[in-house]
Write a structure and sequence with these properties.
43% helix; homodimer; 9 helices; globular; 4-stranded antiparallel sheet; alpha+beta; 262 residues; DNA-binding
Chain lengths: 262, 262
DNA sequence: CGATCTGTTGATATCCTTCAATTTTGGTGG
DNA sequence: CCACCAAAATTGAAGGATATCAACAGATCG
């Protein structure tokens, strides 16, 4: 079993405070927002390509993914959403979704009214910049996926996605050392990595033989994370898990007293 | 030769006003920012992986690209930057770049001080939301690239990237119907699409034989854009070239008189 | 006007896919 | 708790798309 986070802090607050220290005022706002009010069973569509985006929401519990379905029925999974991730923070600016989002496990969401998002920039500048950072993280993950799909072979792609998921789970306190819950079928892995399920099986089997990992009962353990990182040329820098640069933090220390800060 | 844009509006203003009507106040600010003050020759690095990001800048003239170099020297190009595109709008929030940016042609940049970006959210809410939209566009393009690399064959990838570039050039007034300047070598196309230069040659040759396109002297003409779009399953919706949803525009009509608007 | 980068073509190799059959797992109801 | 069913995982064999290697032709630029 995976350890639960030590602190009762909600996942979004845990994530954002890594980037920039938040004020009591900020925590209060996050506490108010990050409250699950929508529930989905596993395997349900949360938002659908071509339809208007639902309200912005925070993934409070569970795992989801963004995907596109092609004309011939094939599917490409673009990102995975973990607790604390925001969904459609941007897409509330468009009239219709260019991709779909679906749940992988049972999922709890907290919907955020659009006005709150827009007001945030004015009333909670720290949260606002931290959300900006969070969306930059997501962009960096998309770029890394492009590198993996464009230039890495099947083994490296698999090693890479597993390393990324372990690191992301660690960042939100959902990893027990090198061990995480991984509620993904091999078909879903294949649709993420641009491979076939059959080939994913083969490569995973060979990794098991090489004592690189254990993957059973929806639990993943990386036995030799260094060798896997090497196979994948994985460098966690792109996840930008560190804090904001000094000058950004300084700017927001002032901003607390900024005339338009409240 | 490609026609120049009819209006003297700077590329960034042209791009943002598609999304939301701007005020005289906004245009003034953009006019002030969008002024080239840095010049690069073709093939130079503008910002380098592992180093601190340079200041945020607008690409005023020319074409650039984001890329990563792997340990074995292979390269993956992640995005192309066209006039009016912002570079490192987000990455000013991090300590070091996770990828590099280089010029493809001679390039003119307008650097924007970080404080200006941060102040923008408060003083120019319309520009701010339009920049937000612009970064959402970029994210959508990254996702589309993932779909292309993960699930499309070589011919479809090539057709897709050419369609995308034609549409993006149209959006900034740099396309003459189906014809654009395309200062890309086949090696660069290959590094963008996860292919080898040799294979790009073969596919392009076959497209020429099929009278789908003309590509010579760094000029691309799509002879049969419908058939190419069909090969690529290209749907321009992901480029989100339309205007903001009505409610967003209404919100910012009010915001002009908003107490914290200035 | 030679040097270098870019594009082209052919032959061969490889990684991954496709197809098909079988086993294992997980969930459900009796 | 077990029987049963559907979904997921596994394995083998064969085929196909793209890579690799190599040689040459064409463009571009000082």
């Amino acid at each position: 079993m995976i350890k639960l986070p030590e602190r009762p802090r909600k996942p979004l607050a845990r994530k954002l405070e890594r980037f920039i220290p938040l004020t009591a005022h900020d925590y209060e706002a996050l506490e108010r927002l990050d409250r699950a009010d929508q529930h989905f069973k596993a395997g349900q569509d949360i938002s659908v390509e071509g339809k208007p985006p639902p309200s912005v929401f925070i993934l409070v519990e569970g795992m989801a993914f963004r995907y596109r379905t092609l004309a011939d029925g094939r599917r490409q999974i673009m990102t995975f959403l973990l607790p604390g991730d925001l969904c459609d923070l941007h897409s509330f600016l468009v009239k219709k979704m260019d991709h779909s989002v679906a749940s992988l496990t049972p999922v709890h969401l907290a919907a955020i009214p659009r006005e709150e998002i827009l007001e945030m920039g004015i009333r909670y500048p720290r949260i606002s910049v931290a959300l900006w950072w969070s969306s930059m993280q997501e962009e960096a993950m998309l770029r890394e996926r492009i590198v993996a799909l464009g230039r890495r072979n099947a083994a490296a792609r698999i090693a890479y996605i597993l390393c990324e998921l372990v690191w992301r789970n660690r960042a939100i306190g959902r990893a027990d050392h090198n061990c995480i819950d991984l509620p993904l079928t091999q078909t879903e892995l294949a649709d993420t990595l641009g491979l076939t399920p059959v080939h994913v099986t083969r490569v995973l089997q060979s990794m098991r033989r090489d004592k690189l990992l254990i993957l059973e009962h929806r639990q993943l353990t990386l036995l030799d994370i260094d060798r896997l990182a090497c196979v994948a040329q994985f460098n966690k820098d792109y996840l930008h898990l560190g804090a904001a640069p000094e000058e950004i933090r300084r700017y927001f220390d002032q901003a607390t007293n900024h005339p338009s800060g409240y």
